[in-house]
Every structure is written in C-alpha cells, then in structure tokens.
Design a protein that fits this description.
Layout lengths: L1 E3 H8 L3 H9 L7 E2 L5 E4 H15 L4 H9 L4 H35 L25 H9 L1 H12 L3 H23 L7 H14 L7 H13 L1 H10 L3 H17 L1
Helix pairs in contact: 6-7, 8-9, 9-12, 10-11, 10-12
Length: 255
C-alpha cells in the first residue's frame, strides 16, 4: 500500500514542504513518484519517518539523523536506543510537571498579608527546563550552515539582559505588524515595509539572508507550529501576514 505526500503529512503532522525537503537532501526519498510528479510513500518509508521524528524529538540535527539511518545498525537496535532516550525525556517531563505543580501550590498558598505572592526558592521555578530547538531552527542549520554558525556565535556573546531586551524588541515589532494587519493595511504599504525592513535588519544581527533565504524564513513562520503559535497568539493570521510582507520585501529589496 502507498500513501500520497498529502496523506503522510496529515498522518504525521509533518508539512508537505518539510517532506519535500527531506526528499531533496536524501533523508526520506519517496518509494516512487507518479507521472504527475506527486510523491508516494510505502510502509518502510513511514517507519523511516517515525525514526526521523523520534530523533528530532531528541534534538538531533538532520545530518546526525542521516548518519544514524545510513549506519549498519539494525532497526530494532536503533529503536531500542530511541526508547532509552525517550524514557530519559519522560523523566525530564515528569520533573517539569513537578516544577509546575510546586509553583501552583506556592502561588495558591504563599500570599502574604498584602495579597502578594512569595516564592520560597525562585530557582525551583526553572527545574527541568532545557533549551529546545524547533524544527525550523534545525532546517536553517541544514540549509544554511554558515548562517547558523554565525548566528550561534552572535548569540554566544549576548548576556541574559541582551537576550531579554532583544526578545522585548521582537515582541513589540510583532505587535506593530499585527496592528497594520488588523487595520487592513496591505502588506506592500510603505509603513508595513518599513517594519519589515526593521525586521530584516534585526535578522542581520545574526545572519544575512538573501531573497530566497528571507522568504524561506517567512515561510517557516507559517509552517512551523511553534513559530505560528507565537505569531497567532498576538493576532490570528499574523504569521501569514508577516510572511507575505517578507515576500514583498525580498522581491523589492533583496532580489
């Protein structure tokens, strides 16, 4: 039995765009393609995709995943190793659950006479957390490794205060873009494009994308669930509006 790329995307939650990218880099070629160019996947391909997603959950990069899948290790041995890592991740999530539960208890019970909350040990708020890398970040690392390395070097020089300031700036800019969207301002409007230029200059602090890369970054805002959620928390449809504005900017200024 074979499944189309659309069916695999629906079953797995992986976008068709990502599946095409996996094919392009040789990570997950389809079993065959129809005369119309549509990709079709068989059971062995679905099992391979499961392994890819398991390793992505464990924050392995695409090159690392490729190396593992191309090794001579048996499928059961590889899955057993994934299973052990997942058990470790389960333990981490249980720690996070305890952290949140403890915070809830302190918020409910720790108010003083002025109705202010007192946290007994602030460091306990962060037990179990660790940096996470999104699918979009992994894709950027795979497609533009030099840009990724450059960005990581810049981030490594930033203090906690620098990061917090940058995050506030990014959020404020997202809100300004959302205001244009809600007002019905076309993405090609000069005022919107001025905000996109500020966005592009902000990106250039970390790496300098060309037109194709900048459009790709905008597309990740739509395709990657974590990016899209962050944008759409501010206003429904903001991720798509931002992407469309970035496309106009890339065509006009970067091509």
């Amino acid at each position: 039995m074979a499944w189309s790329i659309a069916e695999v995307a629906r079953m797995s939650g992986v976008t068709s765009r990502t599946l095409r990218h996996y094919d392009e880099i040789g990570l997950l070629p389809p079993a065959w393609s129809g005369s119309n160019g549509h990709r079709y996947y068989e059971e062995a391909d679905l099992l391979r995709l499961q392994q890819i997603l398991l390793m992505r959950e464990l924050d392995l990069g695409l090159r690392e995943i490729q190396a593992v899948l191309d090794s001579q290790a048996g499928q059961v041995a590889v899955l057993r190793e994934h299973h052990q890592r997942l058990l470790a991740e389960r333990d981490r999530l249980e720690t996070l659950a305890r952290t949140v539960g403890r915070t809830i208890a302190e918020l409910e019970e720790g108010k003083d006479d002025n109705d202010m909350v007192k946290i007994n040990r602030p460091e306990n708020l962060f037990e179990g957390f660790e940096p996470a890398r999104s699918e979009a970040a992994a894709e950027v690392q795979e497609r533009w490794p030099r840009a990724w390395d450059q960005a990581q070097q810049v981030i490594g020089t930033m203090s906690a205060e620098d990061m917090e300031r940058w995050q506030r700036e990014v959020t404020a800019q997202m809100i300004r873009i959302a205001e244009f969207m809600v007002a019905g301002t076309p993405v090609a409007d000069p005022a919107v494009q001025a905000e996109v230029d500020a966005h592009y200059q902000g990106v250039c602090r970390f790496w300098t994308p060309n037109a194709v890369a900048y459009k790709g970054l905008g597309q990740t805002y739509v395709d990657d669930p974590r990016f899209r959620t962050n944008y759409d928390k501010i206003a429904d449809g903001l991720a798509v509006y931002q992407r469309d504005a970035m496309v106009v900017y890339a065509d006009a200024r970067l091509s």
